[in-house]
Amino acid sequence: MTDTTHTRPPGSGSRQGELGDEGSAELPSLAPWEPPASPAVPEADPDRVRALVREARMAASEADRAGVAGTLNQQLDALAAGGGSREVADLLEQLLESGQLAGLEDPGGRACRAAATEALTRLGFPYALEVRPEDLAFLRGQDGASQDFPWRPTAAGALLVAGIAAQWGVPLLQGESLEGPVLPLVLLMGLSLMALVPGLLGPERSASQRAGLLGLLVLSLLQLFLGVFGGYYGALSGGAGLLAWLLLMLPRR
Q1: Which of 28, 31, 8, 5 is nearest to 18 (CA)?
Q2: For the region Disordered, what residue ranges are annotated (predicted)?
């Protein structure tokens, strides 16, 4: 019986499980490519927010309290990013009014009270209107606006209201009737007041504040144009709105 040796052709490679001349070669993976995992974004959880508040209040050390406060601020930001709802607004208001967030700050120095107030303002209309003045003042102080003129927001709001009241009162005192369609003028005045709200209550340099100030400017210029060039009333309310916008746009010190 003849011993026959089978020789493979050059370049044919080796069968599975056999080693070639250059050692074992790792076969390329046929699994589909997966992108690297992105950082996890915490989901809004009202129950977890309550639990974190209790945990922060009961922390044994300042370092532990600051660490829990950092997680709590992330949850508060997530609540604001989830969109406005009555449940979320009630939770934020309850935390602020009860004083449970007092003295809680994350390692970066951001107060949980400021984070909750900002979250409530970011929920939009009508929840932003429910922010308490003292919480809003605390938020502005946290943002470094404590050196700003404290009278500017009050003066801007009072100026616009006074301009609207004068727009209706002056013609009546003079025994005149308003010329032109009254309904569009009422609508423009109402929209100006609504635009003033986020301009006053919105967080500093936020999108809601910029949108409110832009709306106030456009509506004021439109009323001014109708009153001066259109032959209708609206010059007083438009001029007052423009002055209020200028007050809010002054550079901050």
Answers
A1: 8
A2: 1-45
C-alpha span between 34 and 100 (Å, rounded): 44
pLDDT tens digits along 206-220: 677 788 889 999 999
Please check whether residue 143 is in contact with residue 194, taking contact to mean a CB–CB distance below 8 angstroms: no
pLDDT band at 181 (very low <50, low <70, confident <90, very high): low
Closest CA to 49 of 82, 84, 73: 73
Q: Per the structure block, which two tokens stand in for 174?
A: 């003079």
